[in-house]
Amino acid sequence: MNKYSILLLAVMVALLPACNKKKINELERELALKSQQADQLDKQLQTIQATNASLLDRLADLSVINKAGAESIQQSLENINRQYSFIENLTTKIQEKDSLNLVLVMNLKRSLADISEDDLQIEVRGGMVHVSISDKMLFRSGSYALGSQAKNILGKLAAVINQHDDLQIMVEGHTDNVPMHNDCMQDNWDLSAMRATSVVRALQLNYYVAPDRLTASGRSEYVPKADNSTASGRAENRRTEIIIMPRLDQYFKLLESPELAD
Question: What is the CATH code of the structural domain delimited by 112-253?
């Protein structure tokens, strides 16, 4: 019952005959009860209105949060797409490099087919082509001067290398563990470095490999392929390795991750 009904009831009570006091008392009690109920309903209405206002405020906050969340999700998706593109491009480049290495190995083996496998091995290790040549095919014993067979081997090797001018060549000299010392060399470090330098110099001057593609490196006795305790092991360790690899600046650039949004 609303306030208008209560007011109407009060008017009716006022108009009743004075003699009907019992009825008047009942109506007065009913009027007081209805008035109390009306006050309670007013309080409930105020509570509901306050709750609704609070809910509206929370909904407004949620809309802001949802907007920020949507922006964060969009940013994350863009980062994922960048990473996916990077991985896809890297996979493609690796496949291209693997294909190039296969072509290099095939061409080198075909060009150097007349040399025994005991004296020359060609393989792919660590994503790079390694050509390992025994010391007797390139040098006189205990010397860093190139021998007569070196011209044939290095000429054929350079012909293949010059077909791929985007690749770098590192020449590594390796020795056994027998100490080396004479007027020109102090130890195996000197021997390995000077042999590597002799090969690099020949590739540049005699076979026209661009010098900015070449690196000479002496490894001495410290990267053996076999046990130095036997004559055959020592012979296997005395070698020159020619490593054909991508340009390092291009390689590192390829590995750079894409910039991600904050």
Answer: 3.30.1330.60
Q: Phi and psi (nearest 5°) for 2?
A: -90, 180
Strands 120-125 and 128-134: antiparallel
Distance CA 64, CA 43 (A): 32
* Cα three-residue angle 213-215-194, rounded to 5 degrees: 140
Nearest one of 144, 147, 233 to 186, comparing CA atoms: 144
Looking from the CA of 186 toward its CB, the CA atoms found within 13 Å total 3
Q: How many CB atoms lie within 10 A of CB 132?
A: 18
DSSP summary character for residue 222 = S
Q: Give pTM, 2 decimals.
A: 0.62
What strand order describes the sheet that includes 214-218? 120-125, 128-134, 239-246, 167-174, 214-218
SS3 call for 261: coil
Do 95 and 256 touch, CB atoms closer than 8 A? no
Within the chain, residue ranges assigned H as helices are: 3-15, 21-111, 135-138, 150-161, 188-205, 231-237, 248-254
Could you report the per-residue pLDDT of 49-100, keeping only the tens digit for each?
777 667 667 766 666 556 666 666 667 666 766 666 666 665 665 666 667 7
Nearest to 87 by CA among 251, 255, 259, 250: 255
